[in-house]
Amino acid sequence: MNEQELMNVARRLVADDKGLLAMDESTSTCNKRFAKVGIPQDVDMRRAYRELLITTPFLGECISGTILYDETIRQQKKVGTPFVKVIMDGGMIPGIKVDTGAKDMAAFPGEKITEGLDGLRDRLKEYFEMGARFAKWRAVITIGFGIPSFGCIEANAQALARYAALCQEAGLVPVVEPEVLMTGDHSMERCRELTKDVLHAVFSHLCTQRVMLEGMILKANMVLPGRACAKQEAVSEVADATVKCLLQVVPPAVPGVAFLSGGQTCELASARLNAMNARSRSPLPWALAFSFARAIQQPALDIWKGNIHNVVAAQNALYHRAQCNKAARRGEYTAAMEETSTLAHA
Ligand code: 13P
After folding, report:
1. Is 231 in a helix, a strand, or coil?
2. pTM of whole model > 0.90?
3. Which of the chain's ends, N or C, has fewer CB atoms near its CB within 10 Å?
């Protein structure tokens, strides 16, 4: 493990007000999203869509790294250029999702455990040789009646820590993602308490497993009321609750927190990230960045619809969201930005 190199990559992932483009949907998740907008669910369409995303002009102005999936990291542009080369030529760092999914947890009804540790050392070695310099593992924590349990939080936190240690050994920066879901009718306060408990467990296990905190990124959920909760707090309240929670449990050695969007609308995800950065009076110990999938890709996917004639318009939509989120990192995002789209193909 080259500690300095890991620290450099981790810092680059959150430098210059940029963030990550999560485009690591598994084949089944990608197919489900295609089906919703009437796009054929086959390998050619998945390849074409990912080519559209990574060839968006000037994307590297706002995006520091892209998270790929096993199928995608092995693909090329139609003209034959490997995706990894396209991403690096665009000034971005290629990353890879390495967990094999959240599965039902034995003896814990309604809860999930993320799998993928078996054989991980060999897979990481291969991904490094292919050019990846960071990796992602997502744990899923569900809020419901009597859950999450201590057993579920502990098992997921330990798996995240073991994954992170293996990543650093292989020269890949681990993006550690314990996602507390926004599904349900729980209050924002309950989300705050549980997010704090989960992050506390995760950092405890990261330390036990000797993970170098300076060479990792935390991918966190924002502290939000459940989607079905009657009380939906204002943007400023979500921002303050999220920052307060992170300050209590995320060590300052971590260079950055990159939020997932989790099912929020594009505009709310940008506005909440913006408020966190705009409202923090004293400098925060870590960068607050983004690692969105749905909240950055969805408009592009809706416009593309699998039609080659819509590629430029879809790329403009992706670039626009990337610009909005870069502005949010500086606390300069405004609702007016949604009316004046910034064109990549001006
Ligand atoms: P969303 O932004 O759509 O929640 O996805 C982020 C992600 O990478 C989930 O693992």
Report:
1. coil
2. yes
3. C
